[in-house]
Design a protein that fits this description.
This protein is an alpha+beta fold. It folds into two domains: 8-13 and 135-216, DNA polymerase, domain 1 (Orthogonal Bundle), CATH 1.10.150; 15-132, Alpha-Beta Plaits (2-Layer Sandwich). Helix content is 32%, strand content 30%. Strands 1, 8, 9 and 10 form a four-stranded mixed β-sheet that branches. A four-stranded antiparallel β-sheet has the order 4-6-2-7, covered by helices on one side. β11 and β12 form a beta hairpin. α1 (39-51) runs antiparallel to α2 (92-114) and α3 crosses α5 (201-216). The chain is elongated and about 75 Å long.
């Protein structure tokens, strides 16, 4: 079960890689250590380079910086800066290519900063904090036939979608898997204004039950 909605069913898995990139350095006082490599500035240059990466429209591929942090005060050269990066694509080859380009943007920014840094060099660490493979449910899958039969019975219009859900792994392994809404309506997803209205949820729960009963035979 994934989010709200009654007629939606996720049959295509969007692959994703989540990275945490961290740049560290000696830091120091903003006056006495002026000119020391600044991790926040260097990370910003890397992000600007990522913005220049050419992304294909098809297969759709995206990236996002979801969080950035670093530094202690306005009077100090920070010792650390980090960001969280979300990479997504419906095609695993494109996802790998994008990840390589993001790594290159980070590495190039640090190498450039270290060219004239002497012994005040910066270090880069990139950790993978999330990994979901891409995949697609076969149009001939028995589970998809069940969905269509249940929706006809309930007089629902089946809305086939792609998404990043817990169905990703089994779909990538060639197993039959789907993600369906648990009813109600929602909006403002992933913001402080996110909301949910449970109206009409009973129909979605009937749908879930019928899918389970038919799949279990």
């Amino acid at each position: 079960l994934e989010g709200a909605g009654t007629e939606n069913v996720v049959v295509g898995a969007i692959g994703s890689r989540r990275l945490q990139a961290t740049i560290t350095g000696p830091g120091g006082h903003s006056w006495t250590e002026a000119g020391a490599p600044n991790p926040i500035v260097v990370l910003s240059k890397a992000i600007a380079a990522m913005e220049r990466i050419k992304l294909p429209r098809q297969p759709r591929t995206t990236w996002n910086i979801g969080r950035i942090e670093g530094g202690m005060s306005v009077t100090s050269v920070p010792e650390r800066a980090s960001c969280l990066i979300d990479l997504r694509s419906v095609d695993m080859d494109q996802l790998i290519s994008l990840e390589v380009q993001v790594h290159r943007a980070l590495e190039d920014a640090v190498l450039e900063a270290n060219d004239d840094a002497g012994d005040r060099r910066l270090s880069l660490h990139v950790a993978t904090i999330g990994d979901r493979p891409a995949g697609t449910l076969s149009t001939e899958a028995a589970l998809l036939e069940t969905i269509h039969a249940v929706d006809r019975h309930l007089r629902l219009r089946t809305e086939l979608r792609i998404g990043s859900t817990d169905a990703n792994v089994p779909l990538a392994l060639g197993r039959e898997a789907i993600a369906v809404g648990a009813g109600g309506i929602a909006g403002g997803i992933h913001t402080h204004s996110e909301w949910f209205d449970p109206a009409g949820r009973e129909l979605a729960l009937r749908r879930v039950l019928l899918i389970l009963l038919d799949a279990a035979r």
